[in-house]
Amino acid sequence: MLERTQVLVLGLGGTISMRDASGAGAQPSLYLAEVLDGLPGELNVDLEDLKLVPGAALVFHVVLQVADRIRRAGAEGYVGAVVVQGTDTLEEVAYALHLLVDEPMTVVVTGAMRHGSSLGADGAANIAAAVATAAGTHGEGQQGDRAQGDDRANSQKSRHISLSLRSPRRGRRRGSPTAARQATTD
Description:
24% of the residues lie in helices and 28% in strands. It has 186 residues and is α/β, with parallel strands linked by helices. It has one domain: L-asparaginase, N-terminal domain (Rossmann fold). The strands form four sheets. A five-stranded parallel β-sheet has the order 4-1-5-6-9, with helices on both faces. The chain has a two-stranded antiparallel ribbon with strand order 2-3. Strands 7-8 form a two-stranded antiparallel sheet. Helix 2 (60-76) crosses helix 3. The longest helix is centred in the middle third of the chain and has 17 residues, at 60-76. It is globular and about 45 Å long.
């Protein structure tokens, strides 16, 4: 096992990495360390920014690179990985990783509904909850699939990829990569 950390966080961009750009609207410009900057306390994780693109601009060869990095992370002793990306392709990436990664570790795919310049930006909290889930310290602490939302982890059976998404209305979306989306509200 690793001494310094258990979870690898991979950044791809998306709304979670966006902030207002002068006259151009929200653009991906925040690296993972910047997104987490305002979070109280410290996360014991390794951060790797692989891309900084909107979710809709994510291409499949990047997903293949992410899958390869997660496989290597498993061989390096990480117990979990978090993929931080845009919500436009969140479910597709989660499903692709389910097919491409065969490591005995928890993988959580997360994003944000509000960019970093928004009042009530949810990126840092979503990453923190996803890290806790991937490390097995959130919820029941069992290996396997986790659906993450509103700081709650919900166990799923037989999958190791989960979605993590918080909506501005504090509703949560839950699901496994093979299930249809199901929206619920508090």
